[in-house]
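Limitations
The structure tokens in this dataset are predictions for the assembled complex, not deposited experimental models. Users should treat interface geometry with appropriate caution, especially where small molecules or nucleic acid strands are included. An illustrative entry is reproduced here so readers can see what is and is not provided.
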Amino acid sequence: MSEFRVPRSALRTLDRRHFLRAGAVSTAVSMSGWMGELALAAEQAKAKPKRSCILLWMNGGPSTIDLWDLKPGHENGGPFKEISTTAPGLKIGEHLPKIAMHGDRLAVLRGMTTKEGDHARGTYLMRTGQLPGAAGIQYPSIGALVSKELGDPRAELPNFLSIAPQRFFAQEAFGPGFLGPVHAPLIVGENQAFNPNAPGTMVDDALKVADLAKPKAIDGTTASVRLDLLREMQEDFAAGRPGQMARSHAAAYDRAIRLMQSDGARIFDLATEPEKTRDKYGRNLFGQGCLLARRLVEKGVPFVEVSLGNWDTHGQNFDQVKNLCGSLDAAWGALMDDLKDRGLLDTTTIVWMGEFGRTPKINQGNGRDHYPNAWSTVLAGGGIKGGQAVGKTSKDGTTVEERPTTTLDMLATLCMALGIDYEKTNPSNVGRPIRIVDKPCNPVTEVVA
Amino acid sequence: MSARLRLVLAVAALAAPPAARAAEVAPAPKADPADTIAAIIDRHLTADWEARGIRPAARTDDAEFARRAYLDLIGRAPRAPETREFIDDANPNKRAALVDRLLTLPGHAGHFAAVTRAAWLPQTTTNFQLANAGVQFENWLRIRYRENTPADEVVRRILTVPFTVNTQNPMFRFVQPTGNDPDATNLVGFYQANEARPENLGSAVSRLFVGVRLECAQCHDHPFARYTREQFWEFAAFFAETSPLPATAPSFVGPLPPQGNKNRITIANTQKQVVAKFFDGTSPEWTDARTPRQELADWLTRPENPYFAQNAVNRMWAHFFGIGILDPVDEPGDNNPPSHPALLDELGRAFVAARFDNRALVRGITRSRAYQLSSKTTHPSQSDPRWFARMSLKGLTPAQLFDSMVAATGHREPGFMRQNQFNFNAQPNNPRSAFLNRFASNEKATEANTTILQALMLMNGQFVTDVTSIEKGEVLGAIAEMPGWDSRQRVTALFLNAFARNPSPEELEKFASYVDRGGTSGDPKKALADVFWVLLNSPEFLFNH
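Predicted assembly:
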């Protein structure tokens, strides 16, 4: 960090107006304030947030009837069998054996019933609790909401990281909405969707933060002076054109600079992990992404999400689900093991979900189609009373018979597990305060520890 | 034209006063539809500002206007000689003249085709299976914009192209052109991108050409607007030929209906069949001679249909203002009324009267007072973007950003790299591909967010590092080494290249003295590089303002 310190002599080369302004404006924007904030951040970094959340986002709509709520003996059940877990009475799909070893920490919500069967709208609904476009309100994603509640605004690392997202259906569903760009996620490993089996080095590179190091030819003093001059240009421009775009530009640069000065680069370098650990998570984007999530949670990052795609199994559902389970089971199982070993499982809540479930009826192509009517999500770890399934679907899996659970119910449950008051409000872009989780919601208190 | 000749001409243009241009202005023989359109806009907005007690922002200066017009019309900021030429031009009608000239450049057709393709077929940017369909469709659009094909004809051509659908692979319906239409290969991309499914095609056509988003009515009645699930499927049924119903045995009761089953569809997850019907509840007089798609195209584009023209006008408006008169542009309804319904209505009529002439619309909008307002706020009453009392800031598309980088820095780009327009994977050693990938976004232009990764790329990335180095940066190197210039001239040249304007006296003083002192290293050339880096990282460069 010291190489960024600006000698007074360098500042003296700037004009008088600069000095007048540096003295007059708030510390958040002047050079000296910027350095001060970093020192403060170093102090604050010691006080880690108590809680973290890892969202395992299953892009495309996972076939939960083959994973969490099997229908053995029914024609809708398909070929998969149930297996026991470490929790008596809780059974899950046979292709998740490692996760089954943590059955006592899992709460399966089998009564999910939601309203959207379209990828974009379903994604927005599950990640914000709302339908897109409603009354012009830009709802924040759950990651942004949690990051605001649990995050330290002065932390070196961003409070919200999104690993390997595939955002093209619903980019806004991954964003900060009315909470503003400060709560936008840092994204790594994006656009790898078409290369799920990339070799290890490609995965490692994809999970690094690109362009994190300043150019070698630019020394620390010059870099600092450049940033200072840039800050003035930003201020001049924003003074006449106030608004979210100029603010977002300034916020992104602030956070980028903070990240450059942290030991962020090392955290994203997975080569520093033992080979055995890396193998355990699976040498693929999702596996290594989960490993990165663990490292980030260890550093106190409050919200990390890791996406696993290709769940849109309209054809050959069972081959594809089995295949995806290989990645999911290894990575999530290893994540549970590691968090437990490090004493972090009690403070880290894991939520597993996609945008909807899939039709119980198997279609002509041996696939399953979109089905929001009756499906499952899973909560695990910190704040969760594990070893149980709450809610029940009919024998054929088509309807919820017990404890119907809406998106808002599920999000409120997650907030309770994280110790967040979901009734708290944030100011919104339409001028009225909006709750973290909107009414009507009825959290599944049975699963909250 | 050789690079050298171009350079000579550019220099000559800088030296000679543009007297010839001023002399070209002749009185228009009859009413230019663009003037009619501009007058409509000015009349409605002026009245509205007065009624609301709004004090609109100042008129843009020439430099800001030129940058805006270049970005909006040809997809990049002007190069320094272009800016200087425009600023120095004494022609009082130079703004209209600039727009007219930009409309004739190949860059205009290219930019509008890219923007339209991204809006109409967004799937082709994100689904690599459809990338080629996107390329072909964009090629076709480029020719349409170059020839200024009327908007109704563009849509009619798309809707009536002959094709067959190969459904052998249930996961990927392959659309094949038929007949002798030489454009058909390019046009079927529209159907391919919509998976050749009636429900996808129905909602795309409704959204893009009627301005009504129907998707949610696919599964249930539309929550806000007045469209029902049944209406959705009735509209989708115009594309029923892509999902033929199982053949029915000939009946002994009466003749077959003229369309057979080509206009009939089963509502998903039900047994109910519906026959194609327009939103207004009317049906075509079905005959064997005309297909459902032809009927739809005619209904859609006939002059009495206000939806078509208003939607086209509103989308064009949103292109230039960043926000539509109806915004979002495809969500009309009681909860989302247009900001200026009478203006939209009258502009729609004017567009019909101008025979759907896109260029007349562009020329009209850009001549309006509202388009020529500064983005700089001077009064609190300008704050709501829906009243168009100042220009909204707009984010740049990834291509606009990179092309503006090229214009500002003199980066020489191999031709094959220029063809790259998709963001699936950043290709190594291809800066355009890297930018398109990193800056890909489907956010609204007026709500574009800068990400940490974008900031890092602009601060530390290889491309910006190269173009801001004295050794590798073409423009920077030339400015730093121009014999006989003092620091003030060099800084001015950097501002013209990056911001398309001259520096303010304050800025000139600050940066020239920084350069004179040699920045942090004692080397004035390195200090110039610092200045250029600062300008390229500034919001003024990164936004359209």
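Some entries come with short summary sentences. For this one: Residues 393-545 of chain B form one domain.
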